[in-house]
Amino acid sequence: MRTIRFLLEKEFRQIFRNKTLVAMIMVVPVVQLLILPLAANYEVKNINISIVNHDNSDYARHLITRITASGYFRLTSLNTTFDEALAHIESDEADLILKIPRNFEKNLVRENKQKLFVAVNAINGVKANLGGAYLATIIRDFNQDLMLEWFQPSRTSQQPVIAVTPTNWYNPYLNYRLFMVPGILAILVTMIGGYLSALNIVKEKEVGTIEQINVTPIRKHHFIVGKLIPFWVLGMVVFTLGLLVGWLAYGITPEGNLGLLYGFLALYLLAVLGLGLLISTYTDTQQQAMFIAFFFMMIFILMSGLFTSIDSMPSWAKVISRLNPVSYFIDVMRMVVLKGSGLADIIPHMGAVFVFAIVFNTWAIVNYRKTS
């Protein structure tokens, strides 16, 4: 313990001697947590639509009003020819084209049916799918209103009617920030811990102080533990700052036990820092460590379930996501913060992260060599 105490004193002095690094550790996550949830939004709005209206009837104008009043679409052109509307798509001024044919209202009244033409710019697949779905929903609602207007059901009608009343649990108002902030905080803690620990031993190698440490009787596991604990403490501090920002800026408070959240975080940081130290034992320069850490972080982030649901991934990607410690942390963050889950609910996640922590740190200790 005396040896570890001296190592910790050395590490903390090195960290706090670098004022710029301390400022970046404390300020950068706070700024990112203030900005990213405002931009990372699953909703797609301001979809540019060009409408080719060949009818100019009351029904056509009512449909156009429904589309523009929905809040999702922005009308870029109206009453143009289809070629002009297509030119708007080719110049990226429009995302969709809605063509209302001639005799739109007349055919609806006489023949009880009419077709509309919709063209979608599918370069941005997400925007195209959601924009087309929004437009289809508006047209379907418009059609239902017409049916109710023409065929009002009798008050004594005995026809069965199914009514659906949705209830949104854990996020009643579907506020995407409640869903994104816990996940983004998990990513920030992971990046801070992973990058700093990956660069730590490598910095000792580049400066040359590693040689002085290697000639001392310090054991390998003492050395790794002395490198791990300071960044474990910093990870806790960054997480606490993130919770404060979530509360002050977005009004998000954990529904579950705060101690349970910190308990899982303590175990998770051991796994992430162990991975960073493992990378550091394999590399000789900070540039190498940064590239390898960046490689793993990109995979961890994109396959963590933060932006894309793991359930929608192919089978091989689901297997890889189960080997991704970040996915477990994001799940636990959302479970405890939004649902108020208890210890029994997150035990499988804790077991998986515990295995990661044991494997990474043991591997780092075994791989670290005191002789070059």
From TrEMBL:
- Could you tell me where this protein is found in the cell? Cell membrane
Query: What's an example GO cellular component term for this entry?
Result: plasma membrane
Transmembrane segments in this chain: where? 21-40, 176-196, 229-252, 258-279, 291-310, 346-366
> What is the predominant subcellular site recorded for this chain?
membrane
What Pfam families does the annotation carry? ABC2_membrane_3
Q: Which GO terms describe its molecular function?
A: ABC-type transporter activity
Alphabetized InterPro entries for the sequence: ABC-2_transporter_component, ABC2_TM, ABC2_TM_bact-type
Instruction: Name the chain's protein.
Output: ABC-2 transporter permease
Which source organism does the UniProt entry give?
A: Chryseosolibacter histidini
